[in-house]
UniProtKB/TrEMBL annotation:
UniProt key word Transmembrane helix: yes
InterPro entries for the chain: DUF6297
Source organism of this protein record: Kibdelosporangium persicum
Superkingdom as given in the UniProt entry: Bacteria
Listed transmembrane segments: 31-50, 70-97, 118-142, 148-168, 180-197, 203-222, 296-312, 318-337, 358-377, 383-400
This protein's name: ABC transporter permease
Pfam families named among the record's database cross-references: DUF6297
Record keywords: Membrane, Transmembrane, Transmembrane helix
Amino acid sequence: MSTVRAIRREMRAARLRSRPVQARRERSDNVYLVLLGILIYGGILVQAVRRMIAVPPAGPVPPNLPVAQWLFVGCAVLGLGLLIRASLVFGPVVAGGPFQFWLLATPLRRQSLLSRRFWWTVVTAAVAGGLFGLASSALLRADSAGKLLSTSLGAGMTAGIVALCVLFQANRNEGRDVSTVLTTVGVLTVAAAVFVTPPVIDLPVVVAAVVIFPVIAVIQAYRTLGTLDRAALTSGTEILTATRVSVSWLDISMFTSIAAARKWRRIGRVASRPIRGTGYQAMLFADIRRLSRNRTAFLVWAGLLLTPYAADRLLPQAFVPTVQLVMCTIAVSPFAAGLRDIGRSAVLRRNLGGSDAGLRLVHLVAPVVSAVAWTLITSPATGFVVASLIVPVGAVGFAYRRATQPPTDYSGAAVDTPFGMVQPDLIRQLVRGPLLLLFIAAVQLYL
């Protein structure tokens, strides 16, 4: 029986025989783009890593080092839980149409076919986790041993989580329970660090608790690659393609629409009840009904309540309202789903009837109420200063600007700059909303 390596070598040779000039030119272009990306982005990455390593441990240490340590641990556990949820949405091992049609249908060893994809995914996750750990230790003003330890832990834990997701993928277990447990533990750890003075973390104990798990998970996941069926390998192809297109076209709506469709398909069935009222009143009740079925929006809204209090214990008081503004914007965004649907669909507005201003005002009720309530609950962290009064205005203004943004226009004039061809009109469309948030944050610093 032919091996996977022999099949790949024969496919490359057949491509060269069928299109010798085009294939060589395409390969040369790919090599050039890869080398250019390595030289540019790799150089920037190397310089950033060298600067973070060179940061001396002496200097302004966080005022509450135990709080900072426990916040880091809680955010790391929370991030791992969310990483499991995101990895299971995408795969993490994914096989596209040509791959599954031409190779997965053959009697070749599936473990050999998928090993390259698996190891690339694990290495990428390990590099990203290591950089996150290095950046966190640099912010905490750790010494060289602390930076090495934090980098190793970040790399090992992210690689282990990706391998664990592969095991869930092989066993048809969505892993949602594990993700929920980790997310809950992370939120409780952050809450304990914010409202209670925790002890200093004994780093050797943490290392002993997490150093063995990634190695075992990666080895076990590699052994189970052969048990991945075609249904498990192709479940994330749709959303992965949408993500690539969204990144290429700088339009996140392509990704969010498919993610929303998958979420409502997972819910599957809801209790149907008549909507009270008529006209705008019925639309308001319909928007509230839709939000009541979106538990994730309320969980995100409640979880972000801790962030201003954490900033109050770690950052200077002048920056706490800015953190409150940014977190309030993120918390309010899920409640503006109806506003986005209305603002981006002229057909829907014509079918519902009424004026455009009336429809938008009705669907602004949920974002406004959620923003005001969130600000009132988190205002003790800022001391009820004047800067916190404009937080709901900024959050709702950002949501409204993004929801009423017209479709992206790519036909604007391009300007030749040292960084390449740039479309000023495209940049103006991308900063619609974030620019308003930046202006309000600047105003807060002077209040």
